[in-house]
């Protein structure tokens, strides 16, 4: 006998856990399916932290961030713990870099609190960093990081409190879509529901192919590195901002990072990595060469960690769209199927809002949040 729910969510990462929470808040009987363990390390959502920021090179994302911060704070109140840690954040690079200029323009257009700093000013304010004479730096005081794994687990905890069920180690093997219902076959049984939300991360492309759509998603193998600087206090969250470097250091990839906190080490990583055809091809073994490729950047711009030993490294997956904008939309042929995919390495900060948007699309057919960049029609007629 097939168990029946109001809504099934496939994938219990950042977006799926949030979608289950918001669906359950609206009285839906929700089943959340996860092919691995909750908060596993084989996808995109596990870890100490992810950057959160208002500063973006497109005003649509600034608007989405304005919706997102209050939702995180409301979630903190409900959980009774802090998820968002403010450190301030700097975007820096050559002052004529197009993405840096667009970020500065969006900050001005959106009337964000910010400072635009010349190299000497930035050097005085942020002694951890070194800024070349042709650089500019944008400082935004509300930037910081979200406690990533705790946010995922928090959404699930609250969803369960509202009656949602989580079934882990339940790999989806088939999706059958009816006119007003769906059936999902998994390694732990078959289930049906009136609505389906697909938030399967790197596995979304192959899973959604069963529903008749071919999304242009690429899976990237990205390595996150956490260093142990000699002067830990200077490079910790109490004294150091999150940072994004606006210049292409390796094959068109930028560099970003997060200061040390709660034993994490000082994070530095390329924004990108090598593509694979399917996540089953990912090599999760970390590589010394990836860290060594970051050392020239560190020597030039964050010298206090340039020679720091590696405290830990791990592999994270990006699921990237061609334009690096998200997919948050209804299935083109089935309005009761909703898709959240292609978050391209910069979606986590918005995950609680994206979960709300997915729940609204599933239940109401529309969302009041900014979503013009995220429509499927840009890829599928």
Your description of this structure?
- It is a single chain.
- By secondary structure, this protein is an alpha+beta fold.
- The protein is 26% helix and 30% strand.
- The protein is built from 8 helices and 20 strands.
- The strands form 3 sheets. Strands 5, 6, 7, 13, 14, 15, 16, 17 and 18 form a 9-stranded mixed beta sheet that branches.
- Strand 1, helix 1 and strand 2 form a beta-alpha-beta unit.
- Helix 1 packs parallel to helix 5 and helix 1 packs across helix 8.
- The longest helix is centred in the first third of the chain and has 21 residues.
- It is globular, with a radius of gyration of 21 Å.
- It starts with a strand and ends in a 17-residue tail after the last helix.
In summary, what is this structure?
With 381 residues, this protein is of the alpha+beta class. It has helices spanning 14-25, 59-79, 98-109, 119-125, 148-161, 204-209, 288-301, 351-364, and strands spanning 3-10, 30-33, 50-52, 84-86, 89-94, 115-117, 135-140, 144-146, 165-167, 172-177, 182-186, 189-198, 218-227, 242-250, 253-258, 266-271, 274-276, 310-320, 327-330, 337-341.
List keywords for this structure.
30% strand; 26% helix; 381 residues; 9-stranded mixed β-sheet; 8-stranded mixed β-sheet
Q: List the secondary-structure elements in sequence, H or E.
A: EHEEHEEHEHEEHEEEEHEEEEEHEEEH
Give the C-alpha Rg. Answer: 21 Å
Give the overall form. globular
How many distinct beta strands?
20
Distance between the termini: 38 Å
Count of separate DSSP helical elements: 8
Percent range for helical residues? 25-40%
Mean pLDDT rating: 97
> Which residues form runs of ≥5 with pLDDT under 50?
none
Sheet with the most strands?
A: 9 strands, mixed
Assign the structural class, choosing from mainly alpha, mainly beta, alpha/beta, alpha+beta, or little secondary structure. Answer: alpha+beta
Beta-strand percentage range: 25-35%
